[in-house]
Amino acid sequence: xxxxxxxxxxxxxxxxxxxxxxxxxxxxxxxxxxxxxxxxxxxxxxxxxxxxxxxxxxxxxxxxxxxxxxxxxxxxxxxxxxxxxxxxxxxxxxxxxxxxxxxxxxxxx
Length: 109
Prior knowledge:
Layout: E1 3-10, H1 12-20, H2 26-34, E2 39-45, E3 52-57, H3 61-72, E4 77-85, H4 88-99
Antiparallel strand pairs: 1-3, 1-4, 2-3
């Protein structure tokens, strides 16, 4: 099952709502991800460029994109970024495949 890293930053209105009415969001995320046949691996709040990160295992890229679209469409986030993750076997396969590819960068003959 593919894994995804989700990084998000709340819009000011959503952050204000969480400050004035604190709530644990793991249950909401779990229910959403289950709708695409996935599972929540973990989530964390953070500070810096993003307010939090989530790791999910999803059914496929279409399901992950659908979740991202649904969440981003609410306007509750000023940033919402989903990154597919490669497991070690996939990363090794990609490295081996890259070794056999021919490519000329710009300016090279």
